[in-house]
Design a protein that fits this description.
Chain B: It comes from Cohnella pontilimi. Chain B: Belongs to the ABC transporter superfamily. Chain B: GO terms for molecular function: ATP binding; ATP hydrolysis activity. The complex is a heterodimer of chains A (about 260) and B (about 300). The longest helix of chain A has about 35 residues, at about 115-150. Chain A contains 13 helices and no strands. Chain A has about 260 residues and is mainly alpha-helical. Chain A has helices at about 1-10, 15-30, 35, 40-50, 50-55, 70-75, 75-100, 105-110, 115-150, 155-180, 185-205, 225-230, 235-260. Chain A has one domain (about 1-260). Chain B folds into 2 domains: about 1-85 and about 135-215, P-loop containing nucleotide triphosphate hydrolases (Rossmann fold, 3-Layer(aba) Sandwich), CATH 3.40.50.300; about 225-285, 2-Layer Sandwich (Alpha-Beta Plaits), CATH 3.30.70. Chain B has helices spanning about 40-50, 70-75, 95-105, 115-120, 135-145, 165-180, 190-195, 215-220, 260-270, 285-305; strands at about 1-15, 15-25, 30-35, 55-60, 65, 80, 150-155, 185-190, 200-205, 210-215, 225-230, 250, 255-260, 275-285. In chain B, helix 4 (about 115-120) packs antiparallel against helix 5 (about 135-145). The mean pLDDT of chain B is about 85. The interface between A and B is medium-sized, with 22 and 25 residues.
């Protein structure tokens, strides 16, 4: 199992370091620039002139700009989920299809290792990679918040980033459920990125009016309320259960399909 | 005991056929050739043996285990060389070998495969992405030999290999078969290879087995090919009455070519004794010629039936 896990890690190494650099640097940039936004009256005035729907789509509430925790729950949270979601979804949706498309399945699945072992090794490698990016991003946001003296409730910041991580797991669940059924790696990556982007758009469009609000129910971006979390509301059980159930159900569906499908 | 046994084996891909009603038995320690043109069902059969695809119906037993799904323990006893070997381009050849050895729980340094790498003149340092087809094939061969499989399944193993390396490869396969009793299931459409290496052969056509026999039986059953060059130039078939013994006697590039059954050979040679012969060659038909005969006769039988 360890060898296969290490091998998947190695295959995704480049993607992992790109994801790590992009997500962590962006979060560091957002956390580092918090001082310019928090309590800045000109930013508040600018917000008033912008369409509320678009601001809400990016998770920005005018009142969130009064605290560091609120600031992190806005744009930084949205980009955290969007970017980590892209990468994680691609690792998950690409896990089997990349072997088929690169014609390496013939080697990998004729090794004396079961399909289950191969699948769960890949799954484990992806989970570690996503977890590492999420943990280092969270640590960066906490350290910069503490060093600037702006952060008052580290628990609230952690709740916001944890909800982002759980949302990402939900995306991965969808990816795992789809991966055994696809034949083209490029197609799979397009579907993966497309689904994350579509959910982001649904979330944004849902904020534009009551008649579109139902779209939010189709979006994982709407699973948690990061602003409420930043205000110390605590992690709600239902969204956690939904994200984990989606992750588990998708992972199991992908596993069962892999066991039954011809390669 | 059989190394491979297929009974009424069928594989369909939706409405397309893969193999139909395949009945086959390969004995332990045998070198068995599996021949047929592209798309005949060779790779489909091999992919079922390797559990990449599942039979639609019928039974397939390999090394005493009936294949009912994913069986990694069984695969640990099989060495497999796919026809188009694709591996991870960023690994070096050595890393790929180490990966295969590691997964089989074998120390590469203690495996004979490093000696074989030298015999196949294969450089293991470059990355796989820089390898030619031949070098990828060599790597595939070495990966299938990295542990000691009881059964070697080789799907068109020599494509891309130069003749010297092909010769070395056949030597290695023969050595394994002789010293370790390894069964070799060898699929190809290069019939001379089967003739050189295999004891028995199965011919597959459009998903159905049309013949299984020993290579010598197959060629012996084909009578004799008599090739004659007469001292007098030109086509002498009518003049010497060659059509009376073989109505399909041919004349090409100065050579008269007849295909006669064993019981007509004496008559043919008797007829030639008083003719001015410049060159004479009497031989059994090659496997390729027999293969083509089998194919033609099967096609004409089917056409006649329709």
């Amino acid at each position: 199992m360890n060898k296969l896990l290490g091998f998947e890690w190695r295959q995704n190494k480049r993607g992992f370091w790109i994801a790590f650099a992009v997500v962590v640097l962006l979060q560091a940039m957002f956390a580092g620039s918090a001082q310019s936004y928090i309590g800045n009256p000109s930013i508040g005035d600018m917000m008033k002139s912008m369409p509320q729907g678009m601001l809400e789509g990016f998770g920005i509430h005018p009142e969130s700009l009064s605290t560091y925790e609120g600031w992190i729950s806005g744009e930084p949270f949205t980009f955290f989920v969007l970017l980590l979601g892209f990468f994680a979804m691609n690792w998950a949706i690409g896990s089997i299809v990349k072997e088929r498309d690169r014609q390496t399945a013939e080697f990998l699945f004729t090794l004396p290792r079961s399909r289950s072992e191969i699948y769960w090794s890949k799954w484990g490698a992806h989970l570690i990679q996503v977890l590492l990016v999420a943990v280092v991003s969270t640590a960066t946001v906490l350290v910069l918040g503490a060093s600037s003296g702006l952060m008052e409730h580290s628990g609230a910041v952690m709740a916001v980033t944890t909800s982002g991580f759980l949302t990402t797991l939900g995306f991965m669940g969808i990816g795992y459920a789809l991966t055994p059924w696809l034949n083209s790696e490029r197609g799979a990556l397009s579907i993966g990125i497309g689904l994350v982007l579509l959910m982001f758009l649904f979330n944004m469009l849902a904020s534009f009016g009551d008649n579109l609000s139902w779209l939010a129910d189709l979006s994982l971006f709407h699973l948690f309320d990061p602003f409420a979390l930043s205000q110390g509301s605590g992690m709600p059980a239902a969204p956690i259960a939904t994200a984990l159930a989606l992750y588990a159900a998708g992972s199991l569906a992908g596993w069962v399909a892999l066991l039954r499908r011809d390669l | 005991m059989s190394a491979i046994q297929a009974r009424s084996l069928n594989k369909r891909y939706g409405s397309k056929r893969g193999v139909t009603d395949l009945n086959l038995e390969v004995g332990k320690g045998e070198i068995f050739g599996f021949i047929g043109p592209n798309g005949a069902g060779k790779s489909t059969t091999i992919r079922m043996i390797m559990q990449l695809i599942a039979p639609s119906s019928g039974e397939l037993t390999v090394l005493g285990s009936r294949i009912t799904g994913d069986d990694p323990k069984l695969r640990s006893r099989i060495g497999y060389l796919p026809s188009e070997i694709r591996l991870y381009p960023d690994l070096t050849g050595r890393q790929a070998l180490e990966l295969a050895a590691g997964i089989h729980g074998i120390d590469l340094k203690k495996s004979p495969v490093l000696d074989y790498a030298e015999r196949l003149q294969w450089d293991m340092k470059p990355k796989i992405k820089s390898y030619s087809l031949g070098n990828r094939k060599k790597l595939g061969i070495l990966m299938s030999l990295v542990y000691e499989p009881e059964l070697l399944v080789l799907d068109e193993p020599t494509s891309g290999l130069d003749p010297l390396v092909q010769h070395q490869f056949f030597e290695i396969v023969r050595e394994w078969n002789a010293s370790k009793g390894t069964t070799v299931f060898f699929s190809t459409h290069v019939l001379t290879e089967v003739e050189r290496l295999c004891q028995r052969v199965a011919i597959i056509r459009e998903g159905r087995l049309i013949r299984v026999s020993s290579v010598s039986e197959l060629t012996a059953a084909g009578g004799h090919i008599v090739e004659v060059t007469f001292a007098e130039p030109g086509d002498r078939r009518d003049v010497y009455g060659l059509h009376s013994l073989d109505p399909a006697a041919a004349f090409t590039d100065g050579v008269h070519r007849m295909h006669v059954s064993d019981n007509k050979l004496q008559a043919m040679l008797g007829m030639l004794t008083d003719k001015p012969i410049a060159d004479l060659n009497v031989r059994r038909p090659s496997l390729e010629e027999r293969f083509m005969d089998e194919y033609r006769s099967k096609s004409s039988t089917e056409a006649g039936g329709q």
